[in-house]
Amino acid sequence: MEVLILIIGLMVAEPLTSQNYNKIVVDNITAWIPGKKILFGGCLIKSFDSQGLGNLSDAVVPQWDLTVKKILVKYMGIKTVIPGHGDTGGIELLTHTIELVENEKNKQFLELAPASTGSF
Fold it and tell me: How many domains is the chain partitioned into structurally?
């Protein structure tokens, strides 16, 4: 019998507990098929062609990369990753997503930082 674990809004159904994952958006669905080592990432995972994170109106950007890292640790041996949009890949899509999130966090930090006047 094939098992399918659905992660809805990154609050994981049995056998995992919701404390293991951070909330990104309440309507994101991620699915793990253990027997095939396939992760359906939904909009949590970006394709390799993605240059940015897309619409962030409901996103919790500060937790996004941490959530992806937790998935990498929990589901070791991922062979196939299906992003919400774009081409299928492997774990490189998770690391690419982490890099995109880190870039966005840096961009947001720079936008919030006071402009330097160049004098001390």
Answer: 1
Which has the closest alpha carbon to 92: 31, 34, 57, 50? 50
Residue with tokens 């492997």: 90
Give residues with Cβ within 8 angstroms of 32, minimum separation 6. Answer: 4, 5, 7, 38, 39, 40, 75
**Is the residue at 13 inside a domain?**
yes
Q: Report whether 89 contacts 47 (CB < 8 A).
A: yes
Domain-embedded: residue 87: yes
> Each residue of 91-103: pLDDT tens digit?
999 999 999 999 9
For residue 28, the enclosing domain spans 5-111
Residue 35 is encoded by which pair of tokens?
């027997």
- CA pair distance 14, 3, nearest whole angstrom: 11
17's tokens:
């507990």
* pLDDT per position as a tens digit, 30-62: 888 888 899 998 889 999 999 999 888 878 888
